[in-house]
Design a protein that fits this description.
By secondary structure, this protein is an all-alpha fold. It contains six helices and no strands.
């Protein structure tokens, strides 16, 4: 009997981010996507190394994604819950680049992500699991 190889955490996260995007596209509700984000974040928190290369790869995929309509919400959730310095630095770098290129759409996209690093982030109420 062969034991199936465990799913890689980066694949699990990206698949979860796709699911979040589908929920947001269909239901237009972060409340509906919140349980999926909470479960993904719990998996990361329980990992041997929550800041592993796999986690970083998945989150940076979301930061840079043009395919994930819910990328900003996924990054916001993880930014607020974990407040990782590496993630903030990566988003800040992309934000600065968008300012240099005067790409107003991306400027606001990255600003939304950066706002989530604040303990007083106003939109955290859109994700009930962040308030428990």
């Amino acid at each position: 009997m062969t034991v199936p190889e465990p799913e890689r955490l980066d694949d699990l996260l990206v698949d979860g981010f796709r699911q979040v995007s589908d929920i947001l596209d269909e239901r237009k509700s972060t409340l509906a996507a919140d349980p999926v984000l909470a479960e993904l974040a719990d998996r990361v928190a329980a990992a041997r190394d929550p800041e592993s290369d796999e986690v970083k790869r998945a989150l940076l995929h979301a930061v840079d994604s043009r395919e994930l309509s819910g990328a900003a919400e996924a990054v916001q959730y993880f930014a607020h819950r974990f407040r990782w310095t590496w993630l903030r630095e990566e988003v800040e770098r992309r934000h600065l680049d968008s300012l240099t290129r005067v790409d107003h759409r991306l400027i606001r996209h990255y600003e939304r992500m950066l706002e989530a690093f604040s303990p007083e982030w106003e939109d955290r109420d859109l994700f009930p699991s962040l308030n428990s």
